[in-house]
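Internal tracking record. Fields below are filled automatically when a chain is submitted to the structure queue. Please do not edit lines marked as system-generated. If the sequence contains nonstandard residues, flag them in the REMARKS field before resubmitting.
Queue: standard
Priority: normal
Entity type: single polypeptide chain
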Amino acid sequence: MSKSTLRVCALYPDLMNIYADRGNMLLLEKRCDWRGIGFELTAATIGDEVDPDAHDLFYLGGGQDRDQQLCAEDLYTLKREPLHAAADRGAIVLGICGGIQLLGDHYELGTERVPGIGLVDLVTKRAIDGSRLIGNVAIEVDLPGLDGPRTLAGFENHGGRTHLGPAAQPLGRVLKGHGNDGTSGFEGVKKNNIIGTYLHGPLLPKNAWFADYLLATALQLDPSSLQPLDDRLEDAAHASARRAAGV
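SYSTEM-GENERATED OUTPUT FOLLOWS
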């Protein structure tokens, strides 16, 4: 008998899934299974309606520009209001790479403006010279419920420059790598349980402690209350990602 069930909605997994980011869902599933926690994964793609009360965590990965533009229109017209309702009741909304861009107000692709859903105060603009911010990255984050700052490590590859507005807070401080725009020293965005980041690789297998944070927060648990696991392999993966970033 499961103690509880983590209900996850993966948005556009057929289109927004680069850098093996489906591994994020696989890791969450396994860490639930190892603890006797139920796991329900629902996919919602173009044309699918979303129930804001049916899921504890909504996940939006990254994709190529063409696919991202297709998803942006559907996200804005069909899923924007349900996602706002879900965030308002405390569900986690996690956006990675293209996902963080679509959580904001809009993404400027030259003269074209791709609408976001306005969950967080940010704007993304493609670099005028077409350059990309690429490489291993590590950031320092300080999240409620944890015993001090932690390090997230991963890989970034984005042509957009994300600029946080006055109502936005970064997810973390860049230790190594480029971050949101290559100059501010900030990476990602966080507003209550809304989290956006450029870290791929995939993110959660390289940072199992962060997967547990998301799992616990989504189930309204204290992260320290989760059953400890044998994380020797996970810790080695995290250490390797940090070394790759030079931290």
